[in-house]
Design the sequence.
């Protein structure tokens, strides 16, 4: 295969969506490194984007322009909501969602990747609003079954889109709607069996979802690093969002358990903080540290405030927060050195 | 397959959790197997909607109509459209077929009724919605699914006894279990 054939092939693959510009750039930046150089834990080297000033400017302008455009549409709609009638209300929500989706798909093949992602995000955000407006107009109440059906259809729809388009934002959109589906199904089960939502079961369900976020994020990055040596900023952001959601989904329910779990929560928070280092997620480490502070304050207040008095407790809390913050930075740095 | 294992496990985990919750919550409802049908009345005297001249009581296992003991409170102004009716409607719920049918007072008189409220096999009927309100409503309302519950210990089974023109605030009243 000579140079011109290779260029033609790459061009074809870019056009049919097999590979996108970001992946190509990451390949160029990562050049000869292979995945075997990275440990299984993944240390997410990020592609340095070699964008010209014009390209950077264009990206920023896309985002600013989209925000202004959306704000304009929202204000215009709010001012004329009653006057535009049924068709106008549905068209301005569901209609824009569909148009945005088409734009997102149409631009996904070219160089306007940022715009494509923005269009898909607008579409995904407007679809539920559009459906709510439509249902309200035709006087249909949003039942649990309807939420399950709609979230399933939308999640599958965006998952199929992701299969063809390969756009990072679509992964998040699919996961968001799958999450809605998950909680709607759980709510349905509780409601069908006429049981009040059992707090502890619900908390375990949230923790399971948190673990699922972690696994999906880990698998996603691992798969990328098996093919390339670096991830793009956006891929890293997808992973970061999932790790953040995972951390919160695991830690929030854990610190709300009572009794012996007050103390088990410390172990879990510590494990999550260590996991943060393991998966190279500073945000996970930071959130876990924050929860450690909250948990210490909550336990001390619950069990020791009466014996020692509040002024002493305030001094203790202040000292603890400073101590934890200081030691967490030290731990992170020492782990980094060891690695 | 091995390459995508973390993602596959990540997708499977919520599905497994849903199945576990389903097993934990649905299985107890299988314990609800009442043997006796029951009768209830719809509509009770209230300040706003309806006034019944007669109400029901059970004497020696038989349903009887007695003059209403309801007195309209002095501190309320009687609405002009307050409906004055003979007696609340009667309904029979067949537990085996889960069928609801309206019955006449004459038909109800043919049955031997145990006014309970607990049946001889240990069941109770609770009227009213028992949904998971609050944050759960973000995932859609399902308050119309059930408006009565057959209970035994911790086990609960919802039944739908929605009757036309009947609102929760105008009430259902349990008459008794058919012996």
Sequence:
């Amino acid at each position: 295969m000579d140079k011109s054939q290779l260029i033609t092939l790459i061009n074809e693959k870019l056009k049919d969506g097999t590979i996108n510009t970001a992946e190509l750039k990451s390949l160029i930046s990562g050049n000869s490194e292979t995945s075997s150089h990275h440990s299984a834990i993944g240390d997410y080297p990020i592609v340095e984007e070699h964008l010209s000033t014009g390209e950077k400017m264009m990206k920023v302008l896309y985002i600013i322009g989209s925000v202004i455009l959306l704000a304009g549409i929202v204000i215009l709609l709010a001012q004329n909501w009653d006057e535009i009638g049924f068709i106008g209300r549905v068209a301005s929500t569901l209609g824009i969602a569909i148009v945005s989706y088409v734009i997102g798909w149409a631009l996904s093949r070219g160089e306007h990747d940022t715009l494509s992602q923005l269009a898909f995000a607008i579409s995904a955000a407007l679809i539920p609003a559009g459906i709510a407006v439509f249902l309200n107009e035709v006087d249909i109440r949003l039942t649990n079954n309807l939420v399950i059906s709609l979230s399933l259809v939308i999640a599958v729809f965006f998952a199929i889109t992701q299969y063809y388009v390969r756009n990072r934002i679509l992964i998040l959109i699919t996961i968001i709607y799958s999450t809605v589906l998950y909680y709607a199904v759980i709510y349905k089960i509780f409601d069908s069996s006429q049981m009040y939502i059992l707090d502890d079961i619900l908390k375990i369900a949230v923790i399971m979802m948190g673990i699922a976020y972690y696994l999906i994020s880990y698998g996603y990055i691992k798969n990328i690093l098996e093919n390339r040596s670096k991830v793009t900023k956006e891929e890293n952001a997808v992973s970061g969002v999932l790790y953040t959601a995972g951390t919160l989904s695991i830690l929030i329910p854990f610190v709300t358990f009572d009794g012996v779990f007050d103390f088990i929560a410390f172990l879990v928070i510590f494990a999550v903080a260590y996991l943060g280092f393991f998966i190279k997620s500073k945000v996970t480490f930071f959130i876990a540290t924050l929860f450690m502070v909250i948990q210490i304050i909550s336990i001390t207040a619950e069990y020791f405030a009466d014996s020692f008095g509040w002024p002493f407790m305030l001094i203790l809390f202040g000292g603890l927060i400073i101590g934890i913050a200081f030691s967490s930075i030290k731990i992170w740095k020492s782990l980094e050195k060891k690695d | 397959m091995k390459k995508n294992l973390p993602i596959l496990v990540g997708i499977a985990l919520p599905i497994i959790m849903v199945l576990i919750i389903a097993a934990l919550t649905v299985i107890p409802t299988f314990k609800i197997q009442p043997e006796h049908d029951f009768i209830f009345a719809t509509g009770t005297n209230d300040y706003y909607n309806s006034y019944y001249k007669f109400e029901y009581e059970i004497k020696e296992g038989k349903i009887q109509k007695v003059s209403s003991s309801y007195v309209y409170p002095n501190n309320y102004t009687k609405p002009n459209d307050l409906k004055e009716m003979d007696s609340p409607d009667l309904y029979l719920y067949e537990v085996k077929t889960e069928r609801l049918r309206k019955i006449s007072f004459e038909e109800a008189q043919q049955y031997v009724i145990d006014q309970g409220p607990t049946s001889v096999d240990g069941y109770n009927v609770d009227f009213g919605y028992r949904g998971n309100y609050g944050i759960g409503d973000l995932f859609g309302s399902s308050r119309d699914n059930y408006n009565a519950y057959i209970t035994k210990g911790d086990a609960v089974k919802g039944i739908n006894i929605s009757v036309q023109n009947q609102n929760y605030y105008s009430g259902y009243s349990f008459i008794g279990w058919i012996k």
Summary: DSSP finds twelve helices and no strands in chain A. Confidence is low (pLDDT under 50) at residues 31-43 of chain A. The CA atoms of residues 35 and 295 of chain A lie 39 Å apart.
